[in-house]
């Protein structure tokens, strides 16, 4: 049996070692920072296996972008990886779990086929895979299929739980700022006067500036409210910076303002 180190030939070391980083959402990047650290540390593993520093390339442009996107233009890092493999520039791809480079098993299999054609190794925490070798190709293929099946089952369970909660009348979604759930589970206007004042000032700023960027500029240096949703901090009032994406959610603020006006006029 060929050892992992024996699979790495001089022809591989003369080409690039590409460390591909990916996490599915900005929230994962923020909260699972240890995973990000482990992925960056794969560059050290490439050096340990014999690649010179100038031949180690870290591709991290897809952090926070879901692998479910079928359009690789949305994942420029992945598109760059595939292009370099096809050009024969890559000696090895490094990843924590290479079978999950993409959420689509078919897309992963295409990449593995390109690796076999260009003699590109695949290296993850479980070992070194030579895609010209049938056993390695079979093992990675099985891992990819199992990964896709796992994601399918998780998604099915989550959707099933949501449907069950909806049937019980207990399904809750995050509310736009200015709304809260009362003790009976009904949606009501936030009783906090500072929250109401902040929302009123958003509309006033928009009337003055006419743009979301203008609103953000008016609120620069001023805190803006947000209610925590889910977990142990559910319902707690948080204060932070008003960002452009939140300001763009004007339609939700408008709905809140109209509802509040109806409440006042009775």
Strand order of the largest sheet: 2-1-3-4-5
Radius of gyration equals: 25 Å
- Please trace the helix and strand order, writing H or E for each element: HHEHHHEHEHEEHEEHHEEHH
Largest sheet report: 5 strands, mixed
Share of helical residues: 40-55%
Main structural class: alpha/beta
Task: Give me the number of helical elements.
Answer: 12
Low-confidence stretches: none
Shape: elongated
Distance between the termini: 80 Å
Number of beta-strand segments? 9
Overall average pLDDT: 78
Strand residues, percent? 15-25%
Architecture overview:
Helices cover 50% and strands 17% of the residues. It has helices spanning 4-7, 10-13, 26-31, 33-40, 42-48, 76-86, 105-117, 134-167, 193-209, 212-218, 244-248, 250-265, and strands at 16-23, 56-63, 90-94, 121-124, 127-130, 179-181, 187-189, 223-227, 237-241. A 5-stranded mixed sheet has the order 2-1-3-4-5, sandwiched between helices. The longest helix has 34 residues, at 134-167. 23% of the residues are buried.
What is the element layout, followed by pairings?
Elements: H1 4-7, H2 10-13, E1 16-23, H3 26-31, H4 33-40, H5 42-48, E2 56-63, H6 76-86, E3 90-94, H7 105-117, E4 121-124, E5 127-130, H8 134-167, E6 179-181, E7 187-189, H9 193-209, H10 212-218, E8 223-227, E9 237-241, H11 244-248, H12 250-265
Parallel strand pairs: 1-2, 1-3, 3-4
Antiparallel strand pairs: 4-5, 6-7, 8-9
